[in-house]
Structures are given as C-alpha cells and as structure tokens.
C-alpha cells in the first residue's frame, strides 16, 4: 500500500523552530519524483511553501526564504522541511506532496506558532 505520511508538527513559540518529515512508503521510484511542501491556513487556499527537484534543487516561497530549508533523502524515501524563526503567520496545516509518477498528498500536520 502506498502511503505518504507527514510528522513533526506541533505548537511552538514565535521565533522557534520545527522540523517536518514526510515519508513515502510502498514505492521504489521516490528518487524520480519532485517533492514539495504546501500549507493551508483556515479559510485560505493551499499555497506552495517549498519544492525540491529530483536533483535536490530547492525553490521557496518568498515568505519563507532564509527561514525554511527543504531537503530530501532518497535512500530513506524522506523529505524534510526545517523551519526556523517561525512567526504566527506560519500557522497552518502543512502538507507534503509527491509529484509524478507518485502523485500523492499526505494527510497534513498542524503547525501552530504562538505570539
């Protein structure tokens, strides 16, 4: 069974850090899929936070540049999002997405940043 599971969310104070992990299981083609993190706050659309290519080239939304870092470990079928200097506006449900050929979303993990 193919699964994509996020973990690492939680409650953190403003200025704090969290590391999110996304694990893909049941597939042997993780290395050829672009991976991404999105987030969605209540009442808002789901927005791209960061993307990492198959060659580990990252791209970031302007709002998180310099604060967030995306990385992948193809040997473990994992992608990470290291988040630093978190602000209340970063509060959202964070979703991991696997591009083609996996084409899968995770169930999301909640990140709450208190002021």
Word description of this protein:
- Helix content is 0%, strand content 51%.
- It is mainly beta and 115 residues long.
- The strands form 2 sheets. Strands 2, 4, 5, 6, 9, 10 and 11 form a 7-stranded mixed β-sheet that branches.
- A hairpin with a 6-residue loop joins strand 4 and strand 5 (47-52).
Descriptive keywords:
115 residues, mainly beta, 7-stranded mixed β-sheet, 4-stranded antiparallel β-sheet, 11 strands, globular
Summarize this, please?
This protein is mostly beta strands. The protein has strands at residues 3-7, 10-13, 18-25, 35-40, 47-52, 58-60, 68-73, 78-83, 92-98, 104-105, 109-114.
Indicate the percent of residues in helices.
Answer: under 10%
**Quaternary organisation of the protein chains:** single chain
If you compute it from the alpha carbons, what radius of gyration comes out, rounded to the nearest whole angstrom? 13 Å
Count of individual helical segments: 0
Annotation, overall tally of beta strands:
11
Average pLDDT: 97
Write down the secondary-structure element order. Answer: EEEEEEEEEEE
Question: What distance lies between the first and last C-alpha atoms, to the nearest angstrom?
Answer: 40 Å
Q: Low-confidence segments, ≥5 residues, pLDDT <50?
A: none
Shape: globular
Strand content: over 45%
Biggest β-sheet: count, sense, barrel? 7 strands, mixed
């Amino acid at each position: 069974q193919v699964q994509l599971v996020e973990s690492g969310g939680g409650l953190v104070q403003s200025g704090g850090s969290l590391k999110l992990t996304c694990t893909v299981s049941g597939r042997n083609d993780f290395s050829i899929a672009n991976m991404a993190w999105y987030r969605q706050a209540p009442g808002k659309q789901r927005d791209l936070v960061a993307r990492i290519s198959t060659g580990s080239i990252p791209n970031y939304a302007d709002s998180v540049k310099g604060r967030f870092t995306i990385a992948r470990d193809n040997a473990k079928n994992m992608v990470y999002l290291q988040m630093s200097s978190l602000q209340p506006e970063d509060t959202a449900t964070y979703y991991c997405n696997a591009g083609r050929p996996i084409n899968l979303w995770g169930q999301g993990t909640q990140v709450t940043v208190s002021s």
